[in-house]
Amino acid sequence: MYTEDDLRQAVASGAISADAADALRNSVRQTREAPATDEEHFRLINSFNDIFVTIAAVLLLVAMAGIGDALIPSNDGPSALAGLLVAGAAWGMAEYFTRQRRMALPSIVLLLAFVGGVFATLLGLILATFGGDNFGQNQVLGGLLISGATLATSVSAYIHWRRFMVPITVAAGAAALAATAIALIVTAIGPGTVGENVLIPLVFVAGLVIFSFAMRWDTSDRERQTRRSDVAFWLHLLAAPMIAHPLFHWLGVTGGENIGLGAAIGVLVVYIAMGIVALAIDRRALLVSALAYVLAALTFLFDRFGAVELNVALTALVIGSALLTLSAFWTPIRRAVVRPLPQDLQSRLPITAAAA
Fold first, then answer.
1. Which of 171, 170, 173, 182 shows the shortest CA–CA distance to 153?
2. Which end of the chain has the lower number of beta carbons within 10 A, N or C?
3. pLDDT digits (tens, 9 = 90+) for 25-61
4. Nearest 10 degrees: CA dihedral of 223, 229, 232, 234?
5. In this predicted structure, what is the pLDDT of residue 41?
6. What is the pTM of this model?
7. Using N-to-C axis directions, what is the helix angle for 260-281 and 227-250, rounded to 10°?
8. What single DSSP character describes residue 53?
């Protein structure tokens, strides 16, 4: 199985011509009766060896964390040495499995381990230096230090990106920057006075910013033939729950109480709106991230109208059938959604079958 990345490397190395690569893409597109953009490709595994290497890498990372924690234990939080060893081991393994072998799944795991290890190292150093009790007495200091740690983590993600160019790295850096901004705002307001009424809107705004950033990557590769499309995929995957959760929280779905008929209908309306946006930008992340809330709303509706024993089964039937239908007819449905949009907006969206 050859990926888009493999085709680009073959063209770059001179193994095949650019015309031959385009002819192969067109042949695959005609066979599948859908443009490559509508397939929303991203590479996770090439063979079982990816899984094998990932398991081995995780075992080694766990061992590094255990050794670091045993040598310099920490009662207040993560051990700085454990985080440092995990980050160092992740970087070292990435030099071979990412930079040389270009293995997708191990590269993702090693990136997350590196970023997490850097943050754990910084947090461990902060706690070892200042102590957890001092944070309780001086919350502003704690907020500033945590903000500095997340900012440094985003810088480390940028350095990793420059070295290895793993698509998920940009999303990891964006998450760290979002955490930095939220932590600074919370610190400025006063950590002791901040509740969900402040945090939820901050997360929502951060999600919208990351979504806009993802669209910038998407519009730079409308045919989805470069790494920029993979970067956009992970950014959309990060932004989707940050947008969906606040929306459904404000509708009362996340509180655990009886959501009511109006809220249940509101959830369905919001989900349909998300579906239209997902079709327009050709990204399914919004639909997946909001799925749990829709399942809860439909279950309530079926229960409200008397289908008590079958409410779960009917919910699964309706949602499953709708998603399968949407998947099977994604291209024509998307064409119908995109066609009425202004031409200027269409020219920035991923290419549809009508524009191909």
1. 173
2. N
3. 666 655 555 555 556 666 777 788 999 999 999 999 9
4. 140
5. 66
6. 0.85
7. 170
8. H
